Automatic annotation (TrEMBL):
It is a peripheral membrane protein. PROSITE patterns: ABC_TRANSPORTER_1, ABC_TRANSPORTER_2. The keyword Transport applies. InterPro entries: AAA+_ATPase, ABC_transporter-like_ATP-bd, ABC_transporter-like_CS, ABC_transpr_MalK/UgpC-like, Mo/tungstate-bd_C_term_dom, NA-bd_OB-fold, OB_MalK-like, P-loop_NTPase. GO terms for molecular function: ATP binding; ATP hydrolysis activity; transmembrane transporter activity. It is an enzyme of class 7 (translocase). Signal peptide: none annotated. Its EC number is 7.5.2.13. It catalyses: L-arabinose(out) + ATP + H2O = L-arabinose(in) + ADP + phosphate + H(+); D-xylose(out) + ATP + H2O = D-xylose(in) + ADP + phosphate + H(+). This is ABC-type D-xylose/L-arabinose transporter. It comes from Haloferax denitrificans ATCC 35960. Gene3D superfamilies: 2.40.50.100, Nucleic acid-binding proteins, P-loop containing nucleotide triphosphate hydrolases. The complex is composed of two ATP-binding proteins (XacJ and XacK), two transmembrane proteins (XacH and XacI) and a solute-binding protein (XacG).
Amino acid sequence: GGHIRLEGVRKTFDGGDIVACDDVNISMDGGEFVVLVGPSGCGKTTTLRCIAGLEEPDGGRIVVDGEDITGLKSKDRDLAFVFQSIALFPHMSVRKNIRFGLDMKTDLSKAEKRERVESAAETLGLEETLDRKPAALSGGQQQRVSLGRAMVMEPAAFLLDEPFSALDANLRDHMRVEVKKIQRRLETAMVFVTHDQEEAMTLGDKIVVMNDGYVQQIGTPYEIYNEPANRFVADFIGSPSPNLVECTVERTASGVTFASDFCRIPATDEQAAAVQDGQTVVYGIRPEYLSMRDDGGQFTARLDVVEPLGDRDAIHLTSGDTSLSAVTPQGEVSRDRNEVSVAMQTDEAWLFDEHGERIV
Ligand code: ADP
Ligand code: MG
């Protein structure tokens, strides 16, 4: 179970003036961890609420396990929603909070309900807290209680809307791993919404990148990172952001080069075959494909800042009027240097056309 398909889903507000999402086509397998990621306001929550039945789409269909559920009420959908804010009942014990949705179900025996609550508590490591009130729990434990509340419903899929956004960074990292483990154990589909590209990369089996109401790309974390469909995806995924430099294609008898205000980069055969003389392209390359040398690189740059990231350093450079970033192994580039020669691994570069679509 848990195979969810969105077909051309569109949702507008204010009589059509605000297009929250449009032409959303996503196919999710049962047991898959799908992350919707994109900047604030891009339509993630609206898309998730359409799946949940909390919004009615203006167009398109939502199909779960082959059944069109577009017209079905939220409570009749076999899906559990975990909200951004942790909405526990303060006067109820953890046990009652977890059991809350189950109590609405008349077709389950008392023993079955107890069994489900205890099993969820065990999975979530909440056995010791069952008789406490939410206020006596840490933020992470409270978020696990809200997960438990969804788990006991044994839904075909979980829908989670930025469930960790209220947690501090350490706890968020911990909860990511916990949720991923739980999902592996339950083998239930999860649709997880976040604006955080790093969270998306660490959690998703499949990542759906959205911008401005439209799906930009769907793929595995590696596909999204290595083969971005367009300039937006390239820029949004990965930190530090990739270098994106506007260039003009120059084709001469001696070959093809990409000319920018600060350098001329020779094209690879594949790149050369995809462009025309005089064309404007954006040359994109991730920071890890730039390396610093004493000389012999493709251009020189001023070394502005060396930012330690742990095992690696982010190097911030300026060449001409262009800011660039590189990532190098820890300590490889001395902070004392003013100028470096930069070599790029040109076969790892992307080319985007004037509309931002990737051509190589
Ligand atoms: P995200 O979750 O990616 O931040 P949302 O789905 O919440 O984005 O919002 C997408 C767009 O739709 C935004 O422009 C937002 O202001 C608008 N929107 C969302 N819900 C409503 C609503 N109930 N009424 C009017 N506009 C809305
Ligand atoms: Mg949202």
